[in-house]
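Notes, p. 3: input format for complexes.
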Amino acid sequence: MGTLHNTLTVAFWCLVACTIVGAGPFSWMKKDSFDEIMDRMTAVTAENCRSKPRSELELPREAVSHVPVYNKLLSNVYFANRSMLLHMHNLAHQRAFYYSFIYQRMNTSFDFEHQPGLMYLYMSAAADVSASPGWINGSSLLFDNNCVYPNWYTTVDFNTTLPLFGPRAWRADDYNEPTNWLREPTNRTIDVEDYAAGRVTNYTAESYKYAPYTRYEYDPTDSRQEKPLFWWPDNKGYKDSLRKYTYSVGIKFSNQTGKFIREDYEGIPFFGPPQPGQSDKDITLPVLFTKPYFDCGRSNRWITTMTAPVVEYMPRYSTYIHLRRPRFVAVVGIDGEFERIDINQCPISEGNDPPNTFAGTHRCRSTTMCEPISGYGFRRGGYQCVCLPGYYYPWWHDGPFQGWEIEQATQEEYEYGFDCLKSEEMRVVPIQTPEFVSRGKRSTDYLANKKDEFMYVVNPAVRDMSANPKLRLIANRKRRNAEGEEINVAAAYQQKFVSRYAEETKHVRKKREAFEEEYWHRMQDIRQRFYNISKESCKFSEAYELYLPGDAGYGVEQQFEAQGRTALRLAHFLSNFLQNIDEYEQFGNLKGDRRLNETHIFGEVLAIVMGDFKVLGAGAYFDRYKFRVSPPVNTTDPRYSNAITREYFGPYSWRIQNPGDGLDAFRAIDSAGLEKPYTDELWFRRMKQRWATNFHALKKYIDKPMIRSSPNSTSSIRFEHYPITYRAPSYEDGEWSRPEFRCDGRIDNWVATYSVPFFGLNSLKSQIEFKGIVTIDVELRYLDINQCPADFYVANAFKNTAKCDFRSQYCVPLPGKGFEQGAYKCECRQGYEYPFKDLSWFFHGQTMEEEYAKKLNGEPHRYDTLRCRIAGASSVVANIALIMFTSILLLLKKW
Ligand SMILES: *[C@@H]1O[C@H](CO)[C@@H](O)[C@H](O)[C@H]1NC(C)=O
Ligand SMILES: *[C@@H]1O[C@H](CO)[C@@H](O)[C@H](O)[C@H]1NC(C)=O
Ligand SMILES: *[C@@H]1O[C@H](CO)[C@@H](O)[C@H](O)[C@H]1NC(C)=O
Ligand SMILES: *[C@@H]1O[C@H](CO)[C@@H](O)[C@H](O)[C@H]1NC(C)=O
Ligand SMILES: *[C@@H]1O[C@H](CO)[C@@H](O)[C@H](O)[C@H]1NC(C)=O
Ligand SMILES: *[C@@H]1O[C@H](CO)[C@@H](O)[C@H](O)[C@H]1NC(C)=O
Ligand SMILES: *[C@@H]1O[C@H](CO)[C@@H](O)[C@H](O)[C@H]1NC(C)=O
Ligand SMILES: *[C@@H]1O[C@H](CO)[C@@H](O)[C@H](O)[C@H]1NC(C)=O
Ligand SMILES: *[C@@H]1O[C@H](CO)[C@@H](O)[C@H](O)[C@H]1NC(C)=O
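Output follows (895 residues plus 2-acetamido-2-deoxy-beta-D-glucopyranose):
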């Protein structure tokens, strides 16, 4: 009895265990590299990160894919949300240019006082972060050992360096601040710290855990320890000729209104980050990115950093000139949050280059293929499964299978859904419209009648089926009236119209056509103007010809947001600086920053243009008598006792494009030297009118600077002003202008311009006031146009010009083609399939437009064949069962 009982018990528990262990509805999802990365990320928290070894604070480099590579920027298309990585890349590049320029331009001992001071460096880093919420999470400028000459200590000699110095800003989580009543992060509080002060101070030591790009580390394959992994140590001259590049910029200065000091450009050479050409084999990129790592003790997020080197002659002040060589003295780091960077789960293919940890973790069925979609960040499901060529969507499913739907499917759902059906009887693409042979049996009249009849039944009100892409299969209802006669409901309704006043006629609003002839012709006009105006002809053109309608610039504010935010960054920096810096302040041995110097602003606008190939020009225009500079040091001239105020100061920098593989040239002028004051220009007046008196819309930003307590100290204390607050515009406060051909002998190209104001304290320091405008000109050629149908209120000059066959197709814009026609694809609607056998599953807009143009010209064309057909409709398939059955029937009949 006992044994039986025991056996039964064991058997029972085995069954229970089997039931529990057996396959659950989600066990079809196998653990993959996404889960591994996820496990590693969740294992580290703000509390335990300090005790973790370095290997656990870093993720593999392959976890970030599709990283921008400098010399492929022009030839590659970046996905919408990759623009964040691109923005980080360009900003790092820009800051590297700025600091390289400024330290080499202001290299004499006389210039020492004019160099950017402590707060300049702090505020610049803070502006990088505050101007790009959601894109950039941190910014740093970390100096190598004994490479920084501080000009902000009264006790440190000008030729003496600090061992290390590294201001870094990051976005603080301020939800719990006493002043934040909403208890929601405002994203406008920035922490700034000196990396060389605080807990672990030597960020160049091999044992440093938190920032992989600052350590002295060598390429692991290099046993002689000569190839640094990032930029440091730079003491052996490793690949010096490749890693340092001489740039030359030309500047025209002005010392009085309406006049330049010299009529030609003063060439200023300086060393900067490397510049690989398109075809170079041995490339050294100007911007390197790090593995994702945990920003322990600071923002406590997983971040990845784009780094670029600052080059300068070292040692700067030394009588031993022969010892000097250009060195990487500092590294600029721009941090972005890892969780916001889209992963690509699709298999490795063209456009999804290795290395990519997440490649192949998608869950598309074998009849479909994977297409990444943007905006998902580090999350599963950022893809869709489109049918392979030769397959079509089942009738119950509209369009591609979404990744996030698949990722939450149970095993059963997964096995029976998400598959495409095979199209039979694929056709080959015709060369031109096939000629249909009409059959003799029925008269064509008869067929025409039948068609009319069918159309009437299917859709009595709208005869034109193209106007109504989704057929409404509602039979024509008949009704009997009181006398028992049949009446047509629709007809009866039509008769019901009674005019209320004499002239009133019946007005039926026709549903909007998906393609509009009118828009098409307008688009042709716009594009003609775009191509007709050239550098030469623009001087003889009418003023109106140099503009495109405002709706031709549809999408600039999204597509060029990164460029707009670059201008906004400068506006934030200037606002912060002009609202908080007082050169007469002195705290102990700490001097206040001197006022902005002309060279600083020239450097800033030059760097903006040099850092991003889409930017053609950038300017910072000060309002009249708003640019005040510090007096010369030790001046005895009473005119300079307080400050020098310039009437106009408007440095403007632009790019001279080199059509070949060579390097673009860069120039800058002080617009104060131009004959016509820039303050009279319409864009300046309009922006000033808007902001001269009313700045209540400005947002308040908070900086929290922590500094080291003394030059040699490593303890971190609060700066005397803590926190620093300033008011600055947000991206939406700026303005994108309509597309314009800038015919000024400098840019001579189509541009879209973003302008944004900046603010400072008035002369009494009682209130803020409008100080000027930052502008940025982006080349219009890079704007993607969208020809797909859109609602009536969408201000897009090119909408409703896609030549899809909207009865069977819908339109999807294709990004990355620029200001070119035909950048869309016509995909098959629900219930339709792609009929051709050519490894494609959609019709390309360019083909559609070419064929349509041929059709308009009366040439042989195949426009009318580029349609999707009703899914599974055309196949006439031999059915074995049917043949057998018929044969047997015939046989039986015979017998
Ligand atoms: C400063 O830079 C200029 C131009 O690069 C160079 O000719 C000059 O020798 C430098 N002066 C000092 C003191 O470094
Ligand atoms: C600005 O800096 C330049 C270069 O160091 C210097 O020559 C000039 O005097 C400075 N301007 C003022 C107004 O201090
Ligand atoms: C700095 O310059 C002073 C003279 O101006 C000189 O006496 C001193 O030796 C220099 N120090 C260094 C570290 O070069
Ligand atoms: C701050 O950022 C977070 C995360 O991006 C966002 O959810 C939140 O809405 C932002 N807060 C404000 C006030 O914009
Ligand atoms: C930091 O570490 C590096 C590399 O170990 C070393 O060369 C340097 O002297 C250290 N700097 C300081 C200030 O300790
Ligand atoms: C501007 O510079 C030119 C050339 O150096 C000089 O002749 C002129 O006096 C300067 N003007 C002023 C207002 O300083
Ligand atoms: C990512 O792209 C999607 C669609 O293109 C957009 O809605 C979303 O705002 C983007 N997100 C970011 C952070 O750029
Ligand atoms: C300015 O004056 C101070 C004290 O008179 C002197 O020590 C210093 O060398 C002077 N600086 C310059 C640039 O002349
Ligand atoms: C800082 O340290 C260096 C050596 O490390 C020393 O020569 C210098 O006097 C110190 N400076 C101060 C202000 O203490």
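Residues 77 and 816 are 5 Å apart (CA to CA).
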